[in-house]
Amino acid sequence: MQTAIVVLAAGQGSRMRSSRPKVLHEVGGLPLLRHALRSAAALNPARRIVVTGHGGEAVAAAARAEGRDIECITQTEQNGTGHAVAQARAALADFDGDLVVLYGDTPFITGTTLERLAAARTGGADMAVLGFEAADPTGYGRLITGPEGLERIVEERDASQAERAVRLCNSGVMAAPAGLLFDLIGGVGTDNAKGEQYLTDIIALGRARGLSAAVVACPEAETLGINTRADLAAAEAVFQAGARRAALAAGATLTAPETVFFAHDTTLAEDVTVAPFVTFGPGVSVGRGAEIRSFSHLEGAQVAAGAQIGPYARLRPGAEIGAGARIGNFVEVKAAEIGAGAKVNHLSYVGDAGIGEGANLGAGTITCNYDGVFKHRTQIGADAFIGSNSALVAPVTVAEGGYVASGSTVTRDVGPGDLAFGRARQENKPGLGARLMKKLRQAKAAGRG
Ligand code: UD1
Ligand code: MG
Fold it and tell me: Using a 6 Å cutoff on CB, does residue 10 contact ligand 1?
């Protein structure tokens, strides 16, 4: 049997108090919606539909980043989760399989859990709902069960005192044959606290027709639905805890795991060491045995085996650090390849550059890559030596083994093995220092100056 998924992502999420659509808020550097789409991969869906509304174009763009096959359908007015699912009716008119509904604000549902939900359907239940026992059920819909399984779902706002005491909650995920689901939604009204068409009402409608509904339970950590910034922070904490466990299990040493922050796609090879207080933005991979020292921030960067980064280093997108290279304190690297064994140890900016193997950039080396309009490249050959406090005005090349004297402003290419002086020549005046000092002191004693 084929499966289609519909991910609901049209809500504004007004309780987030944000101009950004709720499902585009990020956990681990990835929008909530993309997390939800990734969980659904386990179902191997034949069709993937995202219902968009608030921030439609931006939400659709985020969805398409997960796959070109993803269909986006607009829900012009947000009249509730049932109404949202109904928007996919026409697109799925010829679809003869199961429909699994997911919520774009629920990022942690695992593939295994979705497989268990699908199994409940193949096991004979007409409808299957993913539920969980909530430590604090406030805000969630409650699953009201009877001797024959799930009877109905009641939203918190519409629940009686007794129903609110139920801790078995609705995750929002449900599965049913597509035709049946759309049919039942057709009967959903708006007689509730929010005046909306609740998807959750289809359970009672189905039961009234004698259909069966099963609850598949999963851990609460998977079903965290994000409605507020506090929920978002809680979700981030759940994500980070998982990412830290995964990094440790994969063979990285984290001296103080609770102070290291990961993105959804961070990869650390075996024997990587991460000192306390390090942040990984999206797109970072670190090779075997490399060391990331404290207070470093990495994003879109590749670090090869045995390299040493930080403390206080910033690697920005396009930084490619070669094997055994060293990037030291207060060094920023952007869109630059640093060759194997090269050293940029102190107080430098290296942007739009290629640095050859074994080159050494002294303290305070700056690539002047931007003329105010265009970016230009700096190329430094293998084993070149750039003296401290040098400015390399791009486009410029220092060839292999080239040597730049400290304090130079380099505006012309330097040939292989050549020495470049790009600074004013020094002049010494014998005895003048002492004479000048004497004069100044006399002036001060006389009350002048
Ligand atoms: C919903 C469930 C509740 C469940 C909870 C789990 C309903 C009526 N309630 O409540 O039982 O416990 O999720 O987190 O389904 N959306 C649309 N269009 C709309 C309304 C919502 O696309 O018209 C989307 C939202 O963007 C969101 C998702 O549907 O991604 C859920 O909506 P939300 O308003 O967050 O519902 P909850 O109140 O959390
Ligand atoms: Mg919600």
Answer: yes
